[in-house]
Design goal:
By secondary structure, the chain is α/β, with parallel strands linked by helices. It has 9 helices and 11 strands. The strands form 3 sheets. A 7-stranded parallel beta sheet has the order 3-2-1-4-5-6-10, with helices on both faces. Strands 7-9 form a two-stranded parallel sheet. Helix 1 packs parallel to helix 2, helix 1 packs across helix 7 and helix 4 runs parallel beside helix 5.
Length: 263
């Protein structure tokens, strides 16, 4: 029986880089994103380059009914998914009360609820089979509060803590759970969040999606619990433990004002 890695948010950024890194290692893929044309092009390219089977499903995971349809389709197809990569996510920048509620709700639907639902549906199947692996993509933002991006930081804190708890729960069933916490990564994330990050372009904190993916795939092979690419990002994640909470909040707010000014 063929086994597949299902990757959400696979049309660009870290999701696309992970798809390529896994295909390079001979993994069959199911790619999920909103852009059907982009997915079709990516699927063709990866199939030709790496001789793997690449399926794709166009789906807006922030829409609960569409997510239900995707899960039903996967159940009916009986495809064997042994790796779930919950990468899809969005961000918003600016004071929370000045943001459009529809955008903030979409962030929660995608970053939190869709991820949790996919983990429940596919994780249940994995537990029944006694094997499988889940990778949830959080962020170094999940280790601290983030004034100026409060909803986004909180969503990634949920992903981080949820993944750690789920790891312990599913260990007895032979299912591994890891959480990826990247720092600033060259992708379309900042543009979609309406952020001006020119000051970050020359920063040593910024990593390429390909670098993040390579580190992640290697860590997955070792079933690492928390994956933080780059020593600078590991330092960013560790430092909030040493400082008082009021100071962490102020530093985070200042950084978000500097690097995340709305354009």
């Amino acid at each position: 029986m063929s086994r597949y890695a299902l990757i959400t948010g696979a049309s660009s950024g870290i999701g696309l880089a992970l798809a390529e890194a896994l295909a390079r290692r001979g993994r069959n893929l199911i790619l999920v994103a909103r852009q059907r044309d982009a997915l079709e092009s990516i699927a063709c390219e990866l199939t030709q380059r790496f001789s793997v089977e690449v399926l794709f499903r166009a789906c807006d995971l922030s829409q609960p009914l569409r997510l239900s349809g995707l899960l039903h389709e996967l159940e009916e197809s009986a495809l064997h998914i042994d790796l779930l990569v919950n990468n899809a996510g969005i961000g918003t920048a600016g004071a929370y009360v000045t943001q459009d509620w529809a955008c903030e709700r979409q962030l929660i639907e995608l970053n939190v609820l869709a991820l949790a639902r996919l983990c429940h549906a596919i994780g249940t199947v994995m537990a029944g089979q006694g094997s499988g692996q889940i990778l949830n993509v959080a962020s170094v933002a999940g280790f601290q509060p983030g004034p100026g991006m409060s909803n986004y930081y909180a969503s990634k804190a949920y992903v981080l803590h949820f993944s750690e708890g789920l790891r312990e729960e599913l260990k007895a069933y032979g299912v591994g759970v890891s959480v990826l916490c990247p720092g600033p990564t060259r992708s379309g994330f900042f543009r979609r969040a309406n952020m001006d990050v020119n000051a970050l372009q020359g920063s040593k904190l910024m990593m390429s999606a390909e670098e993040v993916a390579l580190i992640t795939v290697r860590a997955l092979a070792k079933n690492r619990a928390i994956i933080i690419p780059g020593w600078r990002n590991r330092l960013l994640a560790f430092c909030p433990r040493l400082a008082p909470r009021w100071l962490v909040r102020r530093i985070s707010a200042r950084l978000n004002r500097h690097f995340g000014k709305p354009v």
